[in-house]
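Hi,

Apologies if this is the wrong queue. I'm a grad student, and the batch job for COMM domain-containing protein 4-like from Thraustotheca clavata produced an output file that my downstream script rejects. I'm not sure whether the problem is my script or the file. Here is the sequence I used:
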Amino acid sequence: MKFRFCGDQEPPAWLLAEIPVISMLVRSLFLLKSQNRTAALQQKLDEMDRKALVVSIKWIILHAAKYNVEAMVLATELPQLGLPADSAKAIATVYHDNQTSLRRYLAANNMKLGHRIKSVESEIEYVFGTRHAPTLKTANVELTFYHDKMLESTNLTMDIDTFRILHQELRQARKLMDLSLN
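Support response: The file is valid. Your script probably expects a header line. Output copied below for reference.
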């Protein structure tokens, strides 16, 4: 199933795996808060659960802002993933209240690598099977971006399918940029 806050793609598998944890944590939070047992709440949430909760909600909110999703759409999509409706509404409310500032933040801080790139190298690695997966046939693409100082570089590695999607999206973005300049 595809979701607008994921850029009309399927959500990442790690997020789907975290939804039951988030749901359990939210239920525990409401139960313990209603009983005024915040100390018990701190004990109930171990560090990994807290990190999973923060990373998941941050990813959801930032991607909703990235794709300029309306809060109502977000509030309807999150329960489809298995998040309780009241939790989805709370996340959507926070998102709605901060959507403009989030969009400004993303516009100011994302894609800052471009003006510093001096050259790009690419390498394709083919994998035709391993001992544990003998029928595996895949390719990985590694891009290396060299910055102003040739001593600094940024590596980006992805599978061939992800690279094809990235390439297609970059071509579409280039067309849009060319149209806006004309």
